[in-house]
Every structure is written in C-alpha cells, then in structure tokens.
Amino acid sequence: MPDAKAFIDTNVLLYLLSHDAVRADRAESILRTGAIISVQVLNEMTHVARRKLNMSWVEITELVELIRVVCPVVALTVETHDKGRRIAEQYGLSVYDSMIVAAAILAECEIVYSEDMHDGLVVDDRLRITNPF
Predict the structure, then answer these.
(1) Could you tell me the residue range of the domain that residue 78 belongs to?
(2) Per-residue pLDDT tens for 78-95?
(3) How many domains, the chain?
(4) Residue 93 is part of a domain; what is its CATH number?
(5) C-beta neighbour count of 33 within 10 angstroms
(6) Cα(52)–Cα(82) distance, rounded to whole angstroms?
C-alpha cells in the first residue's frame, strides 16, 4: 500500500460487506490506512445498505460508526460543489463521481480508490484514480 494520502469511494467500502473474500480483504486493507471519505460516501453507503442490502437501521448505524472511527470524514461544501461541477465538465465524470474527486482534492489526497471511475485518470495533475481490484 503506498504512503500517498488516499480517499475511498463508496464502492470500495461496500466490499467490506461482500462475500468475495479477496475484495473484502482488499477493502479492509485500504480502510486500515486511515484513508479519507466524505459525507457523500456515508450517504451513499447508507442508501445501498438500506435499499439493496436490506440492512436494519441498527446495522447501518454500527457500520457507519465503525467507518467514522477509522476514516476521517470531510464535509460537503459549496467549494466542493463548485469544484465538482468543473471536474464533471472538464473530465466527463458523473456529477456524483466528480463530487467525490473534488472532496479528495480539497482534502489534499493523491489517490482516489474507486472501482467504477476511470482507472489511471489524473485530475488537475495531482489526483490519480486507482482501481484497487
């Protein structure tokens, strides 16, 4: 695992709940680095856990609290929104992916771990999107 300051996209964290042991172990390894997430990641995790995984609110609360203990969480701000819109326009990422990338840049991260963004894309000459799987 590189020493670069990292940000974790929701899809990577969701593998913590996967029956795919290899991917779950990889997600756990990344999580242990103290990588950063945003409130958006918490919101997306909550949505998927409730709607797709049918987790109870108690289970979701425990999961989110665990993640918040391990990962610093950055807020969504108007600055995040403005930067995210520019990134969406310039790089062709979805609005939601662009907000993740914007939050990572504002948190001074060097890597975003994501399975479903453009692997290898470098944004603003300082943030690399990396598929850890």
Answers:
(1) 6-130
(2) 999 999 999 999 999 999
(3) 1
(4) 3.40.50.1010
(5) 18
(6) 30
The token pair that represents 57 in the structure block: 């609110």
Token pair belonging to 32: 């242990």
Structural domain includes residue 27: yes
- Determine, yes or no, domain membership for 1: no
Q: Which long-range contacts (CB under 8 A, 24 or more apart) does 73-80 make?
A: 73/36, 73/37, 73/38, 73/39, 73/41, 73/42, 74/36, 74/37, 74/38, 74/39, 74/103, 74/106, 74/107, 75/38, 75/39, 76/38, 76/39, 76/40, 76/103, 77/106, 79/106, 80/38, 80/106
Tens digit of pLDDT for each residue in 43-80? 999 999 999 999 999 999 999 999 999 999 999 999 99
